[in-house]
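Sample pair:
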Amino acid sequence: MSSYLARLLKAQTASKRLVSQLVQRKGKLSSLLQRVGLKKWTDTAAARAISTTPVLKAEMADDMELATGIAKREMQLKEQGCGDPWGLGKILKRGSGRLNDPTEIPSAFDGRLVGCLCLDDRFAKWMWLEEGPPKRCECGHYFVLKKVPPV
């Protein structure tokens, strides 16, 4: 506040900005200005109204409006009640795994990486499953790719 007063005393004429900054501070400042002898500036500044233009604050855009592609499709599916559109939350259980009845693995693509938890093993055995005839794991189970529509 003292910097405002120092600038005001040094200036020959007070700028609108400087006076408006001083007038906005009420109470002790007005009494201080009267003691210093600058009452005429506070009166003229108080009489002059500071006008402001009302600004309409724009809202932030909704996420759905900004999203595109797969992200937008995921949001639409979540709104419709599908909490897991990619099916990542469920573990596929092996079926009988025979050649005439292989375990079906859903995929929207031509291939998918599959991990088989074979008996008496601590780690999964990974294999790349592609479209075509069933593929056999080391443990003897058969897997086949089942086409599903993309998300």
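The longest strand covers residues 111-116.
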